[in-house]
Design brief:
heterodimer; A: about 170 residues; alpha/beta; Cytidine Deaminase, domain 2; two-stranded antiparallel ribbon; 4 helices; about 20% helix; B: about 270 residues; Rossmann fold; 8 helices
Chain lengths: ~170, ~270
């Protein structure tokens, strides 16, 4: 299944600005971004609507990972998924890898982040949820569509701003 | 193919060829305006197209339909076929999704676009395209021309960029309830308006220029919206007076979260 993510230039700039801010102790920042679904001929669109910056005090000090968020941030996310149910609005864990070019999940990312998805799916059954990782000039994503256990790798991320940016998946993993 | 092919447009940026080739562009309406648009996009190097037109070439199209010959009117060639021929003649590896129908009958392919250049006739059609573009996060560029008066004809037209997050065609004073109501009173029929090739060329060229700027950012203008008015008697394109005098800063018509497929909410 093909998945294409779109977001406005303003939202993209807002996300990058927030994720690039240094944290008092965490090595990186994470956030949540929300997305609604659109149908394509042979796949789905995820249209990102808004971004939630996780407050500094909702991070847990853990130097084995770049960033770890606590129960308060996760509870907030679950509640947001619950409230987004009527609009079939899903939630996406998002963070930034500070390099250029296409990026992917690190071993830590693969181990830690997908564990959040079943919880999101159990609350928001009819929405697509997932993971987005940005680099300084690219972006990758994985989307768990409703009722699906395995994620679809996002084939394209389009930033609809001035200028337009189109990040396409070239890696096969 | 020689590397010289795009050397004369290298000022668009070192990576412009790549940026242009990755953009998916939609063109509903392949008549007088759309045929110019397609020709220019193909010359520039666009590779991904979503096209719509259900019309066949008629003799009355030959005064302005770029690429059409007398034989096409006799053979009733689909306008879509002419557009594809134009594209493949210049870009043999292009991906063209073409539909001989109204875009509303096959809306899904349009949703993948980053830019749509609307070459449609009526206000209602413009409104519907803009709504779709906002819901699925697409830059919408609208072109249109008209001739007013018979004693002393005046050619006018517009090129409008309506982008997600920016002012829309209603905010910019182009789409109004009065215009839509007047058109609806004629049962939505825009009628056979006078059309000539040179204003269509000006409007299409300006629209393509806006699209290329959105993709390559060569002017660094970062436009969130644009309303340019064409005066065909004076031969000028200027920022619309309506837009210049506008006090509104944010669009109230398209909230940021009204995206994607509409969902029925149980009350």
């Amino acid at each position: 299944m093909r998945v294409h993510i779109k977001l406005t230039g303003a939202l993209y700039a807002n996300i990058l600005r927030d994720l690039m801010r240094p944290h008092p102790f965490a090595a990186e920042r994470v956030g949540f971004v929300f997305g609604r679904m659109g149908s394509l001929v042979d796949g789905s669109l995820i249209l990102l609507t808004r971004y939630h910056s996780i407050p500094d005090d909702q991070y847990i000090e853990d130097h084995t990972v770049g960033a770890r968020i606590g129960a308060e941030a996760l509870t907030w996310a679950m509640q947001a998924v619950y409230h987004g149910r009527p609009a079939r609005e899903g939630i996406f864990h998002i963070h930034l890898h500070g390099h250029r070019g296409e990026t992917g999940m690190s071993e830590t990312d693969q181990r830690e982040i997908p564990r959040l998805i079943p919880g999101f799916q159990s609350v928001g059954r009819n929405a697509g949820h997932g993971i987005i990782i940005l680099s300084l000039d690219h972006g990758s994503g994985w989307v768990w569509m409703p009722g699906v256990i395995e994620p679809a790798h996002v084939s394209r991320v389009s930033v609809i701003g001035a200028p337009i940016a189109v990040f396409e998946r070239r890696r096969s993993e | 193919m020689s590397k010289d092919r795009y050397s004369r447009q290298s000022f668009l940026g070192a990576d412009s060829e790549d940026l242009i080739s990755r953009c998916t562009i939609g063109v509903p309406g392949l008549g007088g305006g759309g045929s110019h648009v397609i020709q220019q996009l193909a010359h520039i190097g666009f590779q991904r197209y979503v096209l719509y037109d259900h019309d066949l070439v008629e003799e009355s199209n030959l005064n302005r339909l770029v690429g059409a010959a007398l034989i096409d009117a006799l053979a009733e060639t689909p306008k879509l076929h002419l557009a594809k021929e134009m594209i493949y003649g210049l870009q043999p590896n292009a991906s063209v999704q073409g539909f001989a129908c109204k875009w509303q009958e096959r809306p899904e392919p349009l949703r993948e676009c980053q830019v749509v250049i609307g070459c449609v006739d009526s206000y209602k059609a413009r409104q519907e395209l803009e709504i779709a573009c906002r819901r699925y996060l697409i830059h919408y560029i609208d072109i249109g021309m008209d001739v007013h008066g018979k004693e002393k004809p005046v050619i006018g037209g517009q090129i409008i960029q309506s982008s997600p997050g920016g002012l829309c065609m209603s905010c910019m004073g182009f789409l109004t309830d009065e215009k839509l109501a007047a058109e609806a009173a004629r049962y939505g029929n825009a009628g056979h308006r006078p059309q000539v090739i040179w204003p269509n060329g000006v409007l299409a060229s300006t629209a393509v220029g806006l699209a290329v700027d959105l993709v390559t950012n060569w002017t660094r203008s970062g436009r969130s919206h644009t309303y340019l008015a064409y005066d065909g008697n004076e031969g000028t394109v200027r920022e619309s007076l309506t837009l210049r005098n506008l006090s509104i800063k944010n669009c109230p018509h398209f909230p940021d979260d009204e995206l994607g497929d509409p969902v029925l909410v149980e009350l």
